């Protein structure tokens, strides 16, 4: 999926020749597709699809692509961070990443993804910014079909119609608020990354202001200006996103509540219901 991978055995700088060698064996049968994203950036088709698996704890370092990317999670939860936001990608949802946007990914448990690389020049109504979006039953089946197609599919035939319908579905899919704004100031960014690493951290606002090397008033003013929300609201949002990612992979509500920094399961449930309109277990069941 990425150009640079931390997994053993993957090499950097693969070329189109890699893909050509993988497409056919000496007996004329189709061999497994490359899982190196660089092999899909220049294929002579508007959409290229691949399937990939990531072990628990896998981290894909910061990188970008020539084409727009759609990450669709079949199972497992991933977090993706760009310069401007951090996104939670639970199962059965997808993330649109425009071409050229640098990002990194961390996997919670085993993650199975289906990825589309899309030439944004083919139409003008595709998203202009990163967003997590709903994957309809139709779009899910279309993506699974795309992975089984030849790399250089028949654009005028059935396969071409499937790919065009995929683009229609992506353009009209509703967004889901599973993103967390990130500040640009390096001092504030240091604080935010520390909280993302450990949402349960109990330090006070004054403690974090000292970490940033600022006074309390300067810290709160700059934080609101750069994230469009107060520090307390931002940290609460981080905790809820972390909780959602843990619940989505089956962790019990009580354990999740304490792990993300709440004093009791009831306090966590009340905050979750206020934010998402349903208790944690019900919400996750409805989203599955």
In short:
The protein has helices at 16-23, 137-148, 158-172, 186-197, 205-212, 216-227, 231-248, 253-259, 265-276, 280-287, and strands at residues 47-54, 59-63, 68-82, 85-89, 93-97, 103-118, 131-134, 175-176, 179-181. With 288 residues, the protein is α+β, with helices and mostly antiparallel strands.
Describe the structure in your own words:
- By secondary structure, this protein is an alpha+beta fold.
- It has helices spanning 16-23, 137-148, 158-172, 186-197, 205-212, 216-227, 231-248, 253-259, 265-276, 280-287; strands spanning 47-54, 59-63, 68-82, 85-89, 93-97, 103-118, 131-134, 175-176, 179-181.
- Strands 1, 2, 3, 4, 5, 6, 7, 8 and 9 form a nine-stranded antiparallel sheet that branches.
- The two termini are 24 Å apart.
- Mean pLDDT is 86; it is low at 1-30.
Secondary-structure map with pairings?
Elements lengths: L15 H8 L23 E8 L4 E5 L4 E15 L2 E5 L3 E5 L5 E16 L12 E4 L2 H12 L9 H15 L2 E2 L2 E3 L4 H12 L7 H8 L3 H12 L3 H18 L4 H7 L5 H12 L3 H8 L1
Antiparallel strand pairs: 1-6, 2-6, 3-4, 3-5, 3-6, 4-9, 5-7, 7-8
Structural class: alpha+beta
Which consecutive residue ranges, at least 5 long each, have pLDDT under 50? 1-30
Tell me, briefly, the overall form: globular
Strand content: 15-25%
Helix content: 25-40%
> Number of helix segments?
10
List keywords for this structure.
288 residues, alpha+beta, nine-stranded antiparallel β-sheet, 10 helices, globular, disordered N terminus
